[in-house]
Design goal:
Chain A: This is Fe-S cluster assembly protein SufD. The complex is a heterodimer of chains A (about 425) and B (about 250). With about 425 residues, chain A is of the alpha/beta class. Chain A has eight helices and 19 strands. In chain A, the strands form two sheets. In chain A, strands 2-1-5-7-9-11-13-15-17-19 form a ten-stranded mixed β-sheet, with helices on one face. The chains are: A alpha/beta (about 425), B alpha/beta (about 250).
């Protein structure tokens, strides 16, 4: 794989490999899983990706993830109140499932069990050298939840998956299968306290006619690294809405891989990146339109302050047979300081000849005329700037069309702005 | 209430001087009309009074209630009672008009040490003012000024003025973009605010507005200075003879 002399390993690479050596006998998994874990560690031995790997061009993982904290076997995070009252909370506390609530219409299993019986092996690292998140997670994943939503089930209450830590390392998975014509809303919370390396991977299958809304709220502490990956397969006449809000973390990479595989289906992505301090946040999406008559819209809004850096890579690929694809992608950034940075790299690869595809990226500052207008009505500068930042983001959040959810997320926005505005 | 003394102001970015030694005094209870040809500095004067950072004051002073306001930012001036009705109100997508009104009113109340207005009281006040101006409450659910017609924007400005109850009102070309019916409604709204404690500076290019908002004094601006002052008769004279005579006379 690497014809050049392998440079000396970084402390992080060495620690990951050594840790695997110490932990592997305690990790769950049948033979198939162990094979995948070993392959993942072999890949890590060739080094974490640098900017020479195209997918990591704006996020040199090898340089940015120079050290990793050790596992902390004594850490035991506490369950958090749900984002929406009435939600069923499924908590993974410091990497381990501690309770198994019942939800009518949803079969719930532990990832621990699905590793042990090998039924999850197919979702683990498959040798793709650029898939560093898959490799790290595959090496160490120990638990999480697997949800199977029954055909036709309409799950009224939101389900909240919580991945919480108190420092150290946690590597979890959320596998979700939404049966035909089912309806559900799932919230994924990623947060904790203390220096940490967190990886979380979800494989989501949305069967024909199903409608699933998935909300990722990432609020890692300032000294945590978060490596997230969401892999989605969408069936015919199905609808999948993914909303994410990144509001924390020192180093964040969030990968979204979508296969719009069934005719007549729809994919909606709405994302908000709130970037402050020295954070580096990279959202990388690869979206395949593989079937005819499918629609997708992706809108990412970023607010960048302090010396924060943001990245959005959005690749849309339209297969030859995916005629009448309608795909629109936009990435808009509001820079609040001269030191902040945002890089956007939209890409379209179109092999069908009858499609409507477009993308746009903008970077703006606060409009001084707007600011003056608000201040001329007696609104102090900080409040006025806050109103304008919220205005910039409101549209994206309001697209969720769920009033309680919109309110809850706007509260998160207010809290973030109170600290970083 | 307002004393402008030998004011010089320029565009911050280019250094172009627009206001060149302007003197003007407006007493409490007075309605002063500022007239003048295009480019005479009328709008700049309104922005400088409100504290727009795009303009720099290089000499002179603006005293409001005897105190200089030059060091105050726009929000502080507004909280002290200075209000500018914009010639071109900003469209601000994403900020709901009602939310904006609530934040503005309560920011000013807080700055003055008054208790915040509760939502039902606020709604009642807004409804009353909107009724006077014959505005549709549904408009206030939209984002601030977005998709408002020219006339609706001007009404929204006067609505804000009625709600914020300023002591010094500066109206910049409030008549532009208004048809005659709307002009009457807006003028009625402004006239209702005339009081012995309140001063108004009404900037206009045409005499027309002054038929409805009758001024106590009229001042003609040319090249950044007041070149002639008089009573409402001066406005009629300008209407008849144009600016050339007055401006030429002074120059």
């Amino acid at each position: 794989m690497n014809v050049h002399a392998t440079p000396q390993m970084t402390a992080a690479e060495q620690a990951l490999i050594d840790t695997y050596g110490q932990l592997f006998s305690d990790l769950p998994g049948d033979t198939a899983v162990v094979v995948r874990r070993d392959e993942a560690v072999e890949a890590l031995k060739s080094g974490l990706p640098t900017r020479r790997v195209e997918a990591w061009h704006y996020t040199d993982l090898r340089r940015l993830l120079s050290t990793v904290p050790a596992f902390d076997p004594l850490a035991r995070a506490k369950e958090q109140p749900a984002l929406l009252s009435g939600a069923t909370v499924l908590p993974v506390l410091s990497g381990t499932v501690t309770s198994m609530p019942q939800i009518e219409g949803v079969a719930i299993r532990r990832i621990f069990d699905r590793l042990s019986d090998g039924s999850l092996a197919a979702q683990l690292f498959d040798g793709d050298a650029a898939d560093a998140i898959g490799a790290i997670n595959t090496a160490f994943v120990g638990d999480g939840y697997a949800l199977d939503i029954a055909e036709g089930a309409e799950i009224a209450k939101p389900i909240e998956l919580q991945n919480l830590h108190e420092g150290g390392q946690t590597h979890v998975r959320f596998a979700t299968h939404a049966g035909r014509n089912s309806r559900a809303t799932i919230v994924e919370r990623q947060t904790g306290t203390g220096e940490a390396l967190v990886s979380a991977i979800s494989h989501i299958t949305v069967e024909d006619g199903a409608e699933l809304t998935w909300i990722i709220l990432q609020e890692q502490p300032d000294d945590a690294t978060f490596l997230g990956q969401t892999n989605i397969e969408i069936g015919a006449d199905a609808k999948f809405t993914l909303f994410f809000m990144n509001a924390g973390g020192k180093l964040v990479r969030q990968e979204v891989t979508v296969n719009v595989a069934g005719e007549g289906s729809e994919f909606i992505l709405r994302g908000v990146n709130l970037l402050a301090g020295g954070t580096h946040c990279d959202v990388t999406m690869v979206l395949d339109h593989a079937a005819a008559n499918t629609v997708s819209t992706e809108v990412i809004r970023n607010v960048v302050t302090d010396q924060a850096k943001g990245v959005f890579q959005g690749q849309i690929r339209v297969a030859r047979e995916a005629q009448k694809t309608d795909a629109k992608m936009a990435c808009n950034t509001l820079l609040l300081t001269d030191e902040g940075e945002f890089s956007a790299k939209p890409e379209l690869e179109i092999f069908a000849d009858d499609v409507a595809c477009g993308h746009g990226a903008t970077v703006t500052e606060i409009d001084q005329g707007h600011l003056f207008y608000l201040m001329a009505r007696g609104i102090d500068e900080k409040t006025a700037r806050g109103l304008l930042v919220r205005a910039f983001l409101a549209e994206v959040i309001e697209d969720l069309e769920n009033e309680a959810m919109v309110e809850a997320l706007e509260e998160k926005l207010t809290a973030w702005f109170a600290t970083h505005g | 209430m307002l004393e402008i003394k030998n004011l010089h102001a320029r565009v911050a970015e280019t250094g172009t001087e627009i206001i060149r030694g302007l003197d003007l005094t407006v007493k409490a209870g007075e309605v002063a009309a500022i007239m003048g040809p295009n480019g005479s500095g009328k709008s700049t004067l309104s922005y400088v009074l409100a504290g727009r950072p795009d303009y720099e004051v290089t000499d002179g002073d603006i005293l409001y209630d005897g105190q200089s306001i030059l060091e105050m930012d726009p929000a502080e001036r507004a909280a002290a009672g200075v209000f500018l009705a914009f010639q071109y109100p900003m469209e601000i997508p994403g900020v709901a008009t009602m939310e904006f009104l609530k934040v503005a009113i309560n920011s000013q109340r807080r700055a003055r040490g008054d208790a915040e207005l509760k939502i039902p009281d606020l709604l009642k006040k807004v409804k009353e003012a909107a009724g006077t101006l014959e505005m549709d409450m549904a408009m206030l659910k939209r984002p601030l000024n977005v998709g408002f017609s020219g006339g609706e924007k001007k009404r929204a400005e006067i609505l804000q003025m009625m709600l914020l109850e300023p002591k010094l009102c500066v109206l910049d070309e409030t008549d532009s973009g208004l048809d005659i019916d709307a002009l009457k409604i807006v003028a009625d709204g402004v006239n209702a605010l005339r009081s012995p404690e309140r001063a108004m500076v009404v900037i206009t290019h045409y005499q027309r507005l002054l038929d409805y908002i009758v001024p106590d004094t009229v001042h003609v601006l040319s090249r950044g200075r007041v070149v002639k002052s008089g009573d409402k008769g001066l406005a009629l004279e300008l209407e008849k003879n144009g600016y050339a005579g007055v401006v030429g006379e002074a120059a």
